Amino acid sequence: MTPLLLVLDRTLQVFDNAWRLCEDKMARISWTQALLTFFSLASCQSSNTVEADGLTAVAGSQTVSYATATVNGTPTRYSVAFTVPASADEGPNILPNVDDPEAKQAQQLCPGYTASNVERTAHGFSASLTLAGAPCNVYGTDIEDLSLSVDVQSTHRMRVRIEPTYIGSSNYSHYILPSNLVYAPEQGIAQNDPQDIDLEFSWSNDPTFSFVILRKSTGDVLFDTRGSVLVYENQFIEFVSQLPENYNLYGMGERIHGLRLGNNYTTTFWAADAGDPIDYNIYGSHPFYLDTRYFETDDSTGERTLVTTQNVSADGNYESWSHGVYMRNAHGMEALLLPTNITWRTIGGSIDLYIFDGPTQKAVTEQYQVGAIGLPKMEQYWAFGFHQCRWGYKNWSMVEDVVNTYRAFDIPLETLWLDIDYMFQYRDFTNDLNTFAIEEGKAVLARMHADGQHYVPIVDAAIYIPNPHNASDNYSVYTDGEDRGVFLHNPDGSEYIGAVWPGYTVFPDWHAEESVSWWTDALQMHHNDMPWDGIWIDMSEAASFCIGSCGTGNLSLNPVHPPFNLPGEPGSQIFTYPEGFASTNQSEAAAASSLSASQASSVERATPPSTATSPYFTSTVTPGVRSLENPPYALKNINGPLGDHAVSPNATHVDGVLEYDVHNLYGHQILNATYHGLLEVFPGKRPFIIGRSTFAGSGTLAGHWGGDNTSLFAYMYFGISQALNFALFGIPMFGVDTCGFNGNSDEELCNRWMQLSAFFPFYRNHNTLSADSQEAYVWASVADASRRAMQIRYSLLPYMYTLFYLAHTTGTTVMRALAWEFPNDPTLAAVDNQFLLGPSLMVVPALGQGMTEVHGVFPGVAQGEVWYDWYTMEAMSDVKPGQNVTIPAPLGHIPVYIRGGSILPQQEALYTTSESRRSPWSLLCALDANGAATGQLYVDDGESLVQNSTLLVDITASEGSLYANGRGLYKDTNALANVTIMGVASEPSNVTLNGEQISSGVAYNSTSQVLMLRGLQSVTGSGAWTQDWVLSWM
Length: 1034
Known about the structure:
Layout: H1 3-22, H2 31-39, E1 66-71, E2 74-79, H3 106-109, E3 113-120, E4 124-131, E5 145-154, E6 157-164, H4 172-175, E7 199-204, E8 210-215, E9 220-224, E10 231-233, E11 236-242, E12 248-255, E13 265-269, E14 281-297, E15 304-306, E16 318-327, E17 333-337, E18 341-346, E19 351-356, H5 361-373, E20 386-388, H6 396-408, E21 415-418, H7 438-450, E22 454-460, E23 463-464, H8 476-483, E24 498-500, E25 503-506, H9 515-529, E26 535-538, H10 581-584, H11 586-606, H12 659-662, H13 666-681, E27 689-691, E28 703-705, H14 713-728, E29 734-735, E30 737-738, H15 747-757, E31 763-765, H16 780-795, H17 797-810, E32 815-816, H18 818-821, E33 835-837, E34 841-843, E35 853-856, E36 867-869, E37 885-888, E38 896-899, E39 902-907, H19 913-917, E40 921-926, E41 933-939, E42 951-958, E43 961-967, E44 976-982, E45 991-993, E46 996-997, E47 1002-1005, E48 1010-1013, E49 1029-1033
Helix pairs in contact: 9-13, 15-16
C-alpha cells in the first residue's frame, strides 16, 4: 500500500469510528465533507509534488496537488495539504559562543572605561564613562561614551544604570526598554527624608572603571565588578560580578534545572518554543536572582565566618543574609555562572540593575514584587479546583463523557480545557462546526455551568491568513486585523507571514494602536458564541515553524501542514513510557519497544541520514551595523539561530521597533492584551489566564504552566523547582502538566503525580495527541489516590486562597523552599525534593519509580519546631536535626505534615469549589512546643476585581484558649462545625465557647494528644465569623 493510500485507509477508519460514536449527538455529514475537512488539516504524503516553500516565491506561483479516492463507490477528488518542508525551519549551523573554544574573550581584549564628570544628584550621582583605550569591537561596535547613574530608590533598593550617552529616535529601542512595555521602578524616597539605607555604592578607575555595592551593616560585598572590564558594544554588553566560593543562587529562568543553580551553568534568556529540555532556555525570561549567604557565628565573640562548604550541620550556629539582583533588559541575554563570578552578556539594550538588600528571602521577594515588577494578580476561587485537559478531545460528546465519567468516579472536576482540537482548522476564535458545533457546545457548557463547573479554551499567538485564491477561505479575525493594521511586517513593509498550526500565519503587533481593541473584539465575539470562563495562551514566544516570512508568495497553498509530523501520524507514533515501565508492565513494554524499533527503522529508510557536514556559521562585525538574524555573539539558544522556530528578529513593529529588541516581551504583551480583553468580556471580574511565555511582571496579568514536559519521574521532580522559581518571579499561580505531556504516562507515575500536583496552586492533568489516556479515572489506584489528595486540597482551599491574598497584597510566596522558611540552616540550601505550601504545610512526595518510602528532613527541630503527621495528627518524635527520616510512602500515599504553631482554616471537600464555599467551617490547630499557634483567613466573594467588602480573620491559640477576631464587612453565614487541636498534653475537664460550656461533641485522644470538637453549628449558626469568639479548654 502506498503511503498516501495507507494514510487514506487509516483516515477512513478514523471517520468511520467517529461517525459511529457521534451519530446520535451530531448532525450527520457527508463522507465527502468529512474527507475534505480532514485533508485540510492532516498531513498526507503523496507522490505528487509541489514546489518547495521559499521566501523568494511569487504569489500564485505554487501549485496544489490533488488525489482521488473512492468513497462508498464514488470517486472523490481532494486536495492534499502541502507540508512545509523541514528545511524551512532550519537555519545556519550556529556554535554558541560559550561552547566555542576559539571564541574571542572580551575580558582579555577590551579596554574598559574610565569614569569622569561625577555629579551628585538628589538620590545618588551621575558620571560619564569613556572608552579607556582602542576599541576592541569583538562582537559589535564599541560605544565610546556612556552615561552612568546611581540612585537609591527606596530604603531597600538601589538602581545602577549604564547606557549610551547619545541616543536618538533611530537607535532608542536598541538600548532603552520603555516603561510602557515593562514597568520601571520609580523613585520612592523624598529628597529630605532621613536616610536609613543599608546599601552603599563605591567606584574606582584603578585600572579601569569598576564598582562595588556593599551592605553597610555587615560590610558584605553584594555586587563586585573589580578585576574585570566593562564591555559595551552595539550588539554586545558584558560585565562581571565576583561571587564567593560555592555560592547559593536561585532564579534566573525560565529553564528546567534544580533549585540551587550551581557554579557551572549558563542560563540563556531567549524565549523559545521548546518542549522542556533540561538546562536550556524555554518559554519565558526572568533575569532575577536571589543570593543567599550563610555565616557561622560565634556567640562569644560575635565573629561571622562565611560558609563556603557543604560540610555543615543542622544544629550548628548559623545565620543567613539574602539579597536580590534584577537586570531589567528584554534583549537576548546569557548569565554564565562560573566558579568565582557571574558574567552577564547581552546582545542589546542597556545595563539597568536593581539591587534589593533583603536581608531575608521573604524580604527580597517582597521588595522585588512590590517595588519592581508588581504584585501577582488575585485569582478567582474556582481557579483552585482541579482542571482536566488533553490534546485529542475530538468532539463535544467526548468532552461531556469525560466530565460525566469524572463525576461517576466521584473525582472532583472543576474545569474542562480544550486544546486546538475545538478550532476550525486550528484557527483562533473559531469552532469546528462538525465536531464542536456552537449550539451543541452551548448546551454542554450550560450543563457544566449549572453544576458549578467551568470551561477554558486555548488561544494561540498566530493568526491564520486566508488563501487569496480560495474565495471560501475567509477568516474575519484576520481581515478585521488587517483593516486595523495590527500585524507585524517585514522590513520592506509587507506582512510578515510565518507558519504555525493552522498553516501560514501572521502575528499580532502589540505596539499597534488598535491591537488590544482588535484582540478584545475577537475574544468578545468568540465568547458570545461559546461562553468560556478563562483563556489559555499558547505559542506566545512567539513561535513560528519556519525561518523568516516563509509564507510570502505561498499563500495559494494555505492551509499547509507543519514541517513535522503531528503526534500519532506515521513515523511519530508514541511508544515511550516512564522509567521502570518495563519492570512492571513487561509484555506491554516489549511490544512498545518492538513497535518503536520498527518505526525508527521505517523513518530511517524513508529519510536516509545525510553524510554531509555543515560548517558553523560565523557572523562578522560590520562597524555601525547590527546583524539581526545571526548577531556576532551567538547565544546558547536551544533552537540554534534566534529566528529558528520563532518569529524572525527582523520582523518589524508599527513604531519601527524590531523584534530583535523586544522578542522576550511578546508573551508578556499578549497576556496584557488578553487581560484587558477579559475585563471587557467579564466586567468587574478577575480575568483568569494561563500563559506560556512570560517576562518579569507577568504575574500581575496571568498564571503560568510549566509547558510541554514529559511523562517521566524526572520531570515530576523538576516540577517542584519550576514552581519554586516562579514563586520568586512573582507568578504563584503555577502548575505543571500532571502525569506528563509528552509520551505515555503509566499508572504508577500518574498515581504519584496526581497526588503531588494537588499541592501546587494550579492543578491540571494534560497530555499530548495520540498518547494513552491519563485522566484520573483511567486506573483504579490513580482514582483512589486522586480522591485522597483532593480531599486534602479541597478542604484547604480557604488556606490556599488566603495565601494568594497575602501574595497579592504583600508579595509573599505561596509555595516555598525549606531554605526560605528556615533561613539559618545551610543544610537546606539545595533541598528541592520536598517543599512547603505557605508556612504551615510540608509535602514530602515520592519522586521515583518503585519507591515505597521516602526520606525527608524536618527543619527547625533543633530550635524546638514541632511537626504533626497530617493523617494521624500525632507529633513527630525522636527526630534529630538534619536527619533524613525514613517515611512510609506506599503507592497512593503522599506524606504531608503540619507545622506546629499553625492554624489552618478548612471547609468541606465537596465536588466543586462553589459547593465547598457554601459548607461549614473547620479549624485545624497545631500547637507549637509552647502551646501556641496563629493563623489567618481571608474571605471575599471569590471573583470580583474590586471587592465591595472583605473579611480578614486573625486566629490565635495561647494558654488553652483559641481566639478569633475578624475585620471587615463581608457577610459569610457558614457556621463553624469543627475544631481540632493537636498537641494538647492532657484531657481537658471543661471546654467553653464565649464562656458557655460545650457539653457534647467533645473527644480527646490521649495517644495522639488531639482534642476534637464536633457539631458546633448549633452555637455558631449565624456564621462562624459574624462575631469574635474565644474557645477555651482547661
